[in-house]
Structure formats: structure tokens, C-alpha cells
């Protein structure tokens, strides 16, 4: 992956994580318990996939892009 692509994918991935986190927050605040648990679990799984399958790939190739390293 070329670095400009990695930067773009990272930005979109982080934006997706923010949006998924909003889903989880809103579900906890506005949905019944069972629906909330289902939505929070699904959002968490997707965030995990973004972290492990997308961001980890980018950070292995471009460690300088990892803000937490």
C-alpha cells in the first residue's frame, strides 16, 4: 500500500470508529436493554475488525502513522 493511500484509509477508519462509537452510545441511552446489548456488541465487533484488519496492517507497514506507538 502506498503511503498516501494508507493515510487516507487510516483517516476513514478512525472516522468509522467514531461513528460506530456514537451508535453504541446512543443505543445505551435510547434503546431497551436487549436492543442496546445487540447494537453495542455489533459496533464493538466492527471496531475490532477495523483495528485488527485495517489499522494494524497500516501500522505494520507505516509505524510512523500509529499515533499511539
Strand coverage percent: under 5%
How many structural domains in the coordinates? 1
Termini gap: 20 Å
Structural class by sheet pairing and helices: mainly alpha
Assembly context of the chains = single chain
* Poorly predicted ranges: none
| Biggest sheet overview | none
Describe it for me?
The protein has two helices and no strands. It is elongated. Helices cover 83% and strands 0% of the residues. α1 runs antiparallel to α2 (33-61). The protein starts with a helix and ends in an 8-residue tail after the last helix. It is mostly helical and 69 residues long. It has one domain.
Short description:
The protein has 69 residues and is mainly α. It has 2 helices and no strands.
What attributes characterize this protein structure?
69 residues; mainly alpha
Question: Layout of SSEs?
Answer:
Elements (H helix, E strand, L loop, with lengths): L2 H28 L2 H29 L8
Amino acid at each position: 500500500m502506498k503511503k498516501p493511500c494508507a493515510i487516507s484509509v487510516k483517516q476513514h477508519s478512525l472516522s468509522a470508529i467514531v461513528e460506530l462509537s456514537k451508535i453504541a452510545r446512543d443505543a445505551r441511552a435510547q434503546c431497551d436493554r436487549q436492543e442496546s446489548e445487540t447494537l453495542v456488541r455489533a459496533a464493538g465487533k466492527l471496531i475490532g475488525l477495523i483495528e485488527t484488519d485495517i489499522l494494524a496492517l497500516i501500522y505494520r507497514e507505516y509505524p510512523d502513522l500509529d499515533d499511539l506507538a
